[in-house]
Amino acid sequence: MAERATTPPILQGPTAKEKKYDRQLRLWAASGQAALETAKVLLLNSGPGVVGVETLKNLILPGVGSFTIVDEANVSELDLGVNFFLEESSLGRWRAEETRRFLQELNPEVRINALEGSIDAFADHPRRLEQYSLILLVGPTRNARVLDRICQHADKSSIPLFYIHCQGFFSHFSVQLPAQFPIVDTHPDPASTQDLRLLNPWPELLEFLEKKTGNLGLLSDHDHGHVPYLLILLHFLNVWNASHDSQFPANYSEKKEFKALVESGARRNNSEGGEENFDEAAAAVLKSLNPHSISSGLREVFEADACQNLRPTSANFWIIANAIQKFQTSHNGILPLPGALPDMKAQSSDYIQLQNIYKAKARSDLAEVTRTIRSSEQELSRRLSIEQAEIEAFCKGAQFIKVIHGRPIRVAKCTAEIDWSDRAKALSQELQNPDSLLPIYFAFLALDRYQDDIDRIRTLRQPANDQQFNDILTGRVVSGAVPPLPTFAESAHFSTPAVDPEHDPKPWPRFDTPEARTAFDDVVKELDRADWGELHNIAALTGGMVAQEVIKVITKQYVPVDNSCVFDGIASKTAVFKV
Fold first, then answer.
1. Keywords, A to Z (predicted)?
2. Which residue, 552, 566, 575, 577, is CA-closest to 177?
3. Of 180, 237, 182, 178, nearest to 205 (Cα)?
């Protein structure tokens, strides 16, 4: 009786979501996409608000979970000229709802809400911010008090906050992250992540080395030309050590000599005049024969109090870091093996065996770290165990993890100077560079300060209507003892006094070079000319940059800006400063 044919299982193709987000999944994987889809973003929009809407556009398309738009303005004629998410029928309507309606068309799977009220309400009732995982605040705000209170509460609640400015041809955004913001998956250059452990081989690797190179000189030309290059390096390291008191090549001249030794082992009596695997070995000498050391970022993590002294409330990051530090201490400074192998000339069977050896070692190291973590969890009486995938990701990328120490956003007030004591000297040095874009940052600070002054005048004078308020601003009406407010250009000139950062208790970075003062004045003139207006192309580009950094923060992948970025649309240049 003939056997019945077995129907092969149906192959499962990519899901609709995987097809939709295929390209971005290659960048931040399923874990990053899951983080995006659970995020709740709050946009506190003010001014023309174009840069805020453009930022949302670039977050809605990749599928960030939900958005709330707070914008009390109604659509004006000016809005129709710069905001692509409005139409003529929107004129006079509530801007938040109109932009929500058109943004929703970009991605129906995303939840977008328009919330009635003003930004001031979030400053007066800051607990309303706690439901959000990230805040986008578009400036300038009505006054410094609003900005200050929102920033303070975001900092207290460890909610990342982006403060964004866009006016004329210039833009700027600052990122306020929690005091400790760890990033495990920094996505380093693949070439820098290779860890072959050639100077610290383990028994299984040495056993395979002996099997494949014990009689290297007797191998056939085919087998000789397919010995994996890392085994070639290990073989010649043994030859080198025999004549150098078991000392590895340590400096450039010794590595150059060792490279020549490796090249001398290649067979050249063939049609190619050499062997590709030996060429690969020679090329890898300089980058593969370095003593194992840990990066400065990882050393900083190991030395942190949060790593040294675990608590029941410690984040998963610090518990894993503590376990890896213990592993490193017990293995003479060696970290868990990542286990990945680069491509190389080899027979498939040999490469697979070698790959299995590295993967087995990586699994063994991972198991040891996991045991330490489970022991720590018991000692700390933690209810939930850290997932194995999180531990594995940390072990693979341990050498490249980074902790960003968040800094508060600088708030410019008309009644008080900013304390620059910790950064004045570094920023003063930056201002000596005639091509520096730092004056753009200070010009936007001056704009914030001027806006705060406008609000102060409005409060003190209590004008009856907008016309009377405009008369006050232009100096046509002077009431009480309050002098007329100078123009922004006049006000900005006094916003950055040249003081001595060595002796002043609250020093400002010094504008003590003609170039720095001229650059600052030029930016001020452009902001003054723009008269609070945004250009759509500058807002769109800035929105793209902000969205990119937001995605980094939400996914905790790649390294976000630390902590302020400026864009010069005239020169088409960007710069990042730590302020």
1. Ubl conjugation pathway
2. 552
3. 237
